[in-house]
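> run fold Disulfide bond formation-like protein
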Amino acid sequence: MNRLYGETALGLAWVIALIASLAVLFIGEVLGQTPCVLCWFQRAFMFPLAIILGLGLWWQDPRVGRYGVVLALGGAAVAAWHMGLYVGIIPERVQPCTATGPSCTDDNQLVLGIPIPLMAVVTFALIGALSVLSLKEKKS
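> ok
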């Protein structure tokens, strides 16, 4: 793969991370939906992705994708746990959300009919895959 292909993959990963970061800020700050504990942990992985991948593009660092992979894997793990709670695979007794705070399993977790945890899993998977693609170099 050539450098342009790697930069395109990295650029797409950055755009996805930036849109996801802005979307959760919109959901929380404009729509007033308080994030649950697991959403906060997912944000802890997503926000740095938008910054690190963007700086990697700016500085033309072809190896910044390795940081994207690590952060995407961490975020995907939290999002998968969240999705497990949402669909009921993980029992509620291990649910990290408090009784007085927002729930990980109620209808507040839906945006346009799609569960937020599912959106997060897909987003982290896309960013991770694109970050891996950005690391591939053409062998001569």
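The CA atoms of residues 5 and 35 lie 36 Å apart.
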